[in-house]
Design a protein that fits this description.
Strand order of the largest sheet of chain A: 2-3-1-4-8-7-5-6
Distance between the termini of chain A: 31 Å
Number of domains of chain A: 2
CATH architecture of the largest domain in chain A: 3-Layer(aba) Sandwich
CATH class of the largest domain in chain A: Alpha Beta
Family (chain A): Belongs to the class I-like SAM-binding methyltransferase superfamily. TRM11 methyltransferase family.
Largest sheet of chain A: 8 strands, mixed
Strand content of chain B: 15-25%
GO biological process, one term (chain A): methylation
Structural class of chain B: alpha+beta
Organism (chain A): Cucumis melo
Main location (chain A): cytoplasm
Oligomer: heterodimer
CATH architecture of chain B: Single Sheet
Number of helices of chain B: 4
Strand order of the largest sheet of chain B: 1-2-3-4
CATH class of chain B: Mainly Beta
Largest sheet of chain B: 4 strands, antiparallel
Order of helices and strands of chain B: HEHHHEEE
Shape of chain A: elongated
GO molecular function, one term (chain A): tRNA binding
Helix content of chain A: 25-40%
Strand content of chain A: 15-25%
CATH superfamily of the largest domain in chain A: Vaccinia Virus protein VP39
Distance between the termini of chain B: 24 Å
Chain lengths: 480, 122
């Protein structure tokens, strides 16, 4: 059945993938898991339009998806559409009686709301539009607070630019019955500014929920974050009922926080969420998991340190003491309270370790969800995503962070189990990847690409006056 | 640190062959309630090394787990309760994990095991 799926005009690249993930979580396609959903666009609409049609098997699934989603404003059973109100009326009249009838019964209550995209409709105009629907034989009572059935009249503007989207050739009006809507109240509840314990790279609440949705976090599952920091990503997974576990190399962040009621535990307590079942200090480069342990996590969600706002560290720093050339050894009498130094940890190595860990520790069908940085300048040939033979990449969603770089949320599914041969194949693949990326991703390069003054651009202006074309439209990402 | 974590960890010092299970040195044990979730327990059961869990729970002062366990016992609510308590509710607040081979001490403070290796151990 086709549903009208109306999105918030935010994080455009994340919208369909979120719905697809949730469809899998709620059992759409039954045994044909991983089968992509079918999408259609309304007449004359641009792919970045908030209006899409999606094919789902039942109201229940559509409702579950909409209710848990962060970016779906509502899912509607479409009763009619048109480019003007006459067409709309004809279309609604032609919608099968037996589909309309159950929702128009006497004794039921209903509400009609009017929404528009790209313009504001005054209260009076809204009322007029609702009055104009009198040809629909509503027999129930109006109830604005808690109606049995909600209906929505949605309109797009037909003039000029539309929140930065390409102009809409023709306006479109939709009328439908609301099947489910998103709970955006979550976001103000969990927003970072109200959180007690924050770090410089804490993940914002909206994104943490999106990541948890991509990871299919739900009750009974175990979700791990190897770069847990203040726990901001796990908060999202815990909200959806998953058990959480986190590791970090910085013990001050995971153990001490900023005081007894300002630490990772308090961030969960603050929202009444169950605290992580484990927090530990461990190094992603040398994880302390026992050798036989595998396939224990249902999902791994993280934001690896990519060296722009925070750099990675791993164990095994070499303290160079005066006059000593050999590798540093800790004197026996100082072992107890020794604080080991750490070495810097490049993104390439970090991503390799992450993929290797995930290949071993995720259950079959488990998901690895993580951010990966991308440079936006020129036609960057280095923008290739890391790969692993155990994993299939199912989505990559870009969020623009500045004119220089963006981050891409990668969602990978584990499709083959980890074996020695696979580990070897992965190593070779990684070597190749490393070669290609060394230039950009080795220490400092991404950082300098992000922070150094732009030479190319000035040359472009001064030279042939041909400013390099922005490959992505301006309205995407945080500009929305 | 809960015993689920203990069951997952080993000493990964360079050269150590048998780093699991880590011995537990108890200074302070607290009980922290966790919501009972049978599905989660059933999921975890096949991944747990049973004997180390039984030994660890004894060290922490809980001796109610059977020596041997197999998947058929997961139908018993009583068994699940005990398993749940041992795996998730016993919490080592202060103490240490000791490498069985080298006796290296990994401290546990405020419930967080510090598994980071020294420079000459990697």
């Amino acid at each position: 059945m086709w549903y009208l799926c109306v999105f918030y005009h935010r994080l455009l690249d994340y919208r369909k993938t979120e719905v697809e993930s949730l469809a899998e979580l709620f059992g759409e396609n039954g045994d044909h898991k991983g089968k992509k959903l079918e999408w259609k666009l309304p007449l004359h609409h641009h792919p970045d339009s908030p209006f899409h049609f999606v094919d789902l098997s039942s109201d229940d699934i559509a409702r579950s998806i909409a209710n848990r989603s962060i970016l779906v404003k509502g899912m509607y059973e479409l009763w009619g559409q048109g480019s003007d109100y006459e067409e709309l009326e004809e279309s609604i009249r032609n919608f099968p009686e037996e589909r309309k009838f159950p929702y128009l019964q006497p004794g039921s209550s209903f509400k009609i709301s009017v929404e528009s995209f790209g313009k504001a409709i005054s209260f009076q105009e809204q009322n007029e539009r609702i009055q104009g629907l009198a040809y629909i034989p509503f027999k129930g009572q109006v109830n604005l607070k808690s109606p049995d059935h909600k209906f929505c009249l949605l309109e797009t503007a037909d003039y000029g630019l539309n929140n930065g989207l390409p102009p809409i050739a023709q306006r479109r009006i939709f009328f439908g019955r609301e099947v489910g809507g998103a709970d955006r109240k979550l976001i103000p509840t969990y927003q970072l500014k109200s959180r007690t314990y924050l770090g410089p790279t804490a993940m914002d609440a909206e994104m943490a929920f999106l990541m948890a949705n991509q990871a299919l976090a739900t009750s009974g599952k175990l979700v791990f974050d190897p770069f847990v920091g203040t726990g901001s990503i796990l908060v999202g997974a815990a909200h959806f009922g998953a058990m959480t576990m986190g590791a970090d190399i910085d013990i001050r962040v995971v153990r001490d926080g900023r005081g007894p009621d300002c630490n990772v535990w308090s961030n969960f307590k603050q929202y009444g969420l169950p605290p992580p079942i484990a927090l530990l200090r461990a190094d992603n480069n040398l994880p302390p998991w026992r050798p036989g342990l595998k396939e224990i996590f249902d999902a791994i969600i993280c934001d690896p340190p990519y060296g722009v706002r925070a750099g990675g560290r791993k164990s095994g720093g070499r303290k160079l003491l005066k006059g000593i050339v050999a590798p540093y050894t800790v004197p026996d009498d100082k072992r107890t309270d020794h604080i080991p130094s750490t070495a810097s940890y490049s993104l390439v190595e970090c991503v390799h370790d992450l993929l290797d860990l995930a290949a071993k520790m995720l259950v079959m069908g488990g998901r690895l969800v993580f951010f990966y940085p991308m440079l936006r300048e020129e036609d960057c040939v280095f923008n290739q995503f890391p790969e692993h033979p155990c994993f299939t990449l199912i989505s990559s969603s870009e969020q623009i962070l500045s004119s220089r770089y963006s981050r891409v949320l990668l969602t990978m599914v584990k499709r083959s189990s980890y074996t020695e041969e696979i580990a070897e194949a992965a190593r070779l693949k990684h070597e190749e990847f490393r070669e290609n990326h060394l230039k950009w991703l080795e220490d400092g390069n991404l950082h300098s690409a992000v922070f150094s003054p732009s030479v190319n651009r000035q040359l472009g202006v001064a030279g042939n006056g041909n400013v390099s074309k922005d490959p992505k439209p301006k309205y995407r990402g945080k500009y929305v | 640190m809960r015993l689920l974590t203990h069951n997952m960890l080993s000493s990964n010092i360079k050269g150590v062959i048998n780093g699991f299970p880590l011995r537990i040195e108890v200074e302070k044990v607290v009980e922290k309630p966790v919501d009972f979730n049978p599905d989660f327990l059933k999921n975890m059961f096949s991944k747990i090394e049973w004997k180390p869990l039984v030994d660890a729970s004894r060290t922490m002062g809980y001796a109610e787990l059977p020596e041997e366990a197999d998947a058929s016992m997961l139908d018993s609510h009583d068994f699940l309760q005990r398993f749940h308590h041992a795996l998730l509710e016993l919490h080592l607040e202060e103490g240490a994990l000791i490498c069985p081979e080298t006796n290296r001490r990994f401290p546990v403070n405020k419930g967080i095991p510090n598994m980071l290796l020294h420079e000459d151990e990697v």
